[in-house]
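Give me the fold.
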Amino acid sequence: MQEEACLTLEQLCGACTVGPDWVAGHVLEGRLHPPGERPSQWRFGSRDVARVTRIRQLEIAFDADPELAALVADLMEQLEDLRTQLRLLD
């Protein structure tokens, strides 16, 4: 199921209380994957909001390196997806 990407960079920053430089750094490092080549073209969906929030919380709460925080976020997202698949099988 494809999610509709509807938030701009500015809207994402406001929703997640992060700065545009923080988001841009994570995009450039491959931890976030918005469509579009320039920040003005980037669009984000609800999964991106959850991911940004989770990564930022991990960075703050555990003083986690951004790469480690993104890896933990990946694992948590995979776990959520697997749980959803299990519920569908029941």
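Residues 55 and 70 are 6 Å apart (CA to CA).
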